[in-house]
Design a protein that fits this description.
With 553 residues, this protein is mainly α. The chain has 25 helices and no strands. Helix 7 runs antiparallel to helix 8 and helix 8 runs parallel beside helix 23. It is globular, with a radius of gyration of 24 Å.
């Protein structure tokens, strides 16, 4: 372990040294452009320190905490007492506990994850997925059903990974489909789907970060509106899902995945440890609570945003919906909707005699506690955002980079940076927390709301790609565990497929659309590239003999 950590630490120290030199250059630039005298080149050090330390140690929470401490020391002009007071008052109490919208985000995240855990313990989610498995008649239909079932668990990537991996594994073994392919399908329909869903354990976090950025810029828009406006530009998520669908329908594989499929078709059977998921009961135990969250969120946003009064125009217009969602107090609505869903889940589990009150409470508590690391990241990301605001990090970057980097290049640069950070740290949420407060103000000043929306989509997309292919990622690990395939085998087999979607999103999505390429043409070209990769490089595994396992060679 020490030999692996040494080069990584050396690289991190090198990046930090370069960052310090950059800070000195920015200091000089700030003076030349007559920026606010209180803004110094050292303003970039806290977020840079967070990135470097997270890369070096692979420990995000301590990295963010130490970055906040560094920012407090810089803001207090090296007065330790003032720095401690700033951390307690400004970066904890004021930026989190006194902000009602942030507290509602916490309520939403905890209540929804608790609800998911409760309906899973009651057998509802398992019953929902089990309805799909009976229709599988061969390898193609089994894979297509797994892809489709990924949309059933749209509300959480962890639930998707564990539930589909454990439920579909016996079916894949029986049909001689490799577990590496199962892990790829599970992993590729977890974060990409949860990241796009308008109701998920992700959206409260993303909306909160977007809302903070908009408020800091003085924009009369909500985080929810930014999320909705960025949805059409989530190219990696869309292209990754498109690749999965075409891959399954074509029946063609290439690279390490083709070899894994050939071994499975040739009769290789991996040793199995039986994992027994919750006993399936009724799918309505899952459908009704989650459906209630969806319905109450939609109705709540329409009501609170003035949609029913007609004052914002006809609901037949997409522009009206966007305006209504932007005007509504989205975090409060999400929080209240999640509490309604939790109440319905308890009522069904107890009313149908599926769980006792104590068992239901324990299941809900397990789900709520599972969000503790994510909430820790969220709290520290909010604190780091307040640090950047005090130091003027955004102002400094805007002044230094707005002329050096054309607006058309910002989305592609953002996508690459987010991908690198997420891959190095293994966390998409941490990447969002570091980059959104810094990148969005820069994007807005460089090119207005249009570039801000493109960069918001690029941050989310890059965070998901880096997390998707990183061996440090929790969803990558969960997918391999649930599918019972070795972690590095899972990473090795899915990486070529993810890279096709990545380069399609990089060149034909974030890069080309920002440069003015028509949106529809971007999709057509990406479809052509994905199809060409599958039909040019891939072959049906059934046409090949079983190949020896790489480790056996």
């Amino acid at each position: 372990m020490a030999t692996r950590r040494g080069p990584r630490l050396a690289i991190a120290l090198g990046i930090l040294a370069v960052g310090c030199l950059l800070a000195l250059r920015l200091e000089d630039h700030a003076r030349r452009v007559a920026l606010d005298p209180s803004v110094r080149g050292s303003a970039i050090l806290p977020p840079l320190f967070a990135i470097v330390l997270a890369f070096a140690t692979r420990q995000l929470l301590p990295s963010l905490g130490l970055a906040i401490a560094l920012g407090a020391i810089l803001a207090a002009r090296f007065d330790p007492v003032d720095a401690a007071l700033r951390i307690a008052d400004r970066y904890a109490w004021e930026s989190i506990l006194l902000d009602a919208s942030k507290l509602w985000i916490v309520v939403f995240t905890v209540a929804l994850m608790g609800t998911v855990s409760l309906v899973s313990a009651a057998g509802g989610v398992q019953a929902l997925v089990s309805r799909f498995t009976g229709a599988a008649r061969g390898p193609k239909s089994a894979q297509l059903l797994t892809f489709t079932a990924g949309f059933v668990a749209f509300f959480d990537d962890y639930t998707n990974a564990i539930l589909l991996g454990t439920s579909m594994r016996p079916l894949f073994d029986r049909l001689r489909i490799s577990r590496a392919k199962l892990a790829y399908l599970v992993d590729s329909t977890s974060a990409p789907i949860a990241g796009l869903a308008v109701i998920s354990t992700w959206i409260g976090y993303e909306v909160g970060l977007f809302g903070d950025a908009a408020q800091g810029l003085g924009l009369a828009t909500s985080g929810y509106e930014i999320f909705f406006r960025a949805l059409p530009f989530r190219f990696y998520c869309y292209f990754a899902l498109l690749f999965v669908l075409l891959n399954v329908l074509s029946g063609r594989e290439f690279g390490p995945m083709r070899r894994a499929e050939a071994r499975a078709r040739g009769g290789e059977v991996e040793p199995s440890t039986e994992f027994s998921p919750s006993q399936a009961t009724s799918p309505w135990v899952a459908i009704l609570p989650i459906g209630l969250v969806l319905a109450s969120t939609l109705l709540g946003l329409l009501w609170d945003g003035g949609g029913f009064s007609g004052e914002r125009g006809s609901l037949l217009s997409f522009a009206t919906w966007r305006e209504v969602f932007g005007a509504a107090d989205s975090t409060r609505i999400l929080g209240l909707a999640s509490l309604l869903g939790a109440g319905a889940a308890f009522a069904l589990a107890l009313g149908m005699g599926l769980l006792t009150l104590s068992a239901a409470a324990r299941a809900f508590g397990r789900g709520a506690r599972s969000m503790a690391p994510a909430l820790g990241i969220l709290f520290l990301a909010w604190g780091l955002s307040a640090v950047s605001e005090d130091l003027g990090t955004s102002s400094l970057l805007v002044a230094a980079l707005s002329e050096a980097l054309p607006p058309a290049l910002l989305p592609i640069a953002t996508f690459l940076l987010a991908s690198a950070i997420a891959f190095a740290t293994g966390t998409s949420w941490g990447t969002m927390g570091i980059l959104i407060p810094t990148v969005l103000p820069l994007a807005y000043h460089a090119g207005g709301m249009e570039v801000l929306v493109l960069c918001a989509a690029a941050v989310l997309d890059g965070a998901i790609f880096g997390d998707h292919v990183s061996p440090l990622s929790d969803t990558t690990l969960l997918s391999s565990i649930a599918s019972e395939v070795e972690l590095l085998e899972h990473v090795r087999t899915q990486l070529p497929y993810a890279l096709v979607a990545f380069f399609s999103a990089l060149v034909l999505g974030h890069g080309s659309v920002a440069a003015g390429l028509p949106y529809a043409l971007s999709w057509l070209l990406a479809l052509a590239v994905i199809a060409a990769s599958l039909y040019g490089l891939g072959r049906p595994p059934k046409e090949e003999v079983a190949l020896p396992h790489p480790e056996a060679a």
